[in-house]
User: Fold this.
Amino acid sequence: MALLGLLSLSGMLIKNAIVLVNEIDRQVAEEVPRLTAIIEASVSRLRPVTMAAGTTVVGMVPLLFDPFFVNMAITMMGGLSFATALTLLAVPCLYALFMRVRQEETA
Assistant:
């Protein structure tokens, strides 16, 4: 069951990353400087991503008392809590790195 939790966890994290990258690309298409777009998209998507993760973590609490699902619940709750923070930090940094965004682009 822990493996099933890990697989569903990876899907949620990919969704979070897509939401963030999509917002960055939308702002860049509106001709916002790329570095500013990364910062503003990260700030604007902070609440939706954390709320989605938080509701999933809280929704898993009842499964902690079921012997069959406890391993899946622990895997998803711990992984999602840690990886959400990691996603909100790593995705903007990796986007800036891979797209070769420079600090001078803010103006």
The two ends are 50 Å apart (CA to CA).
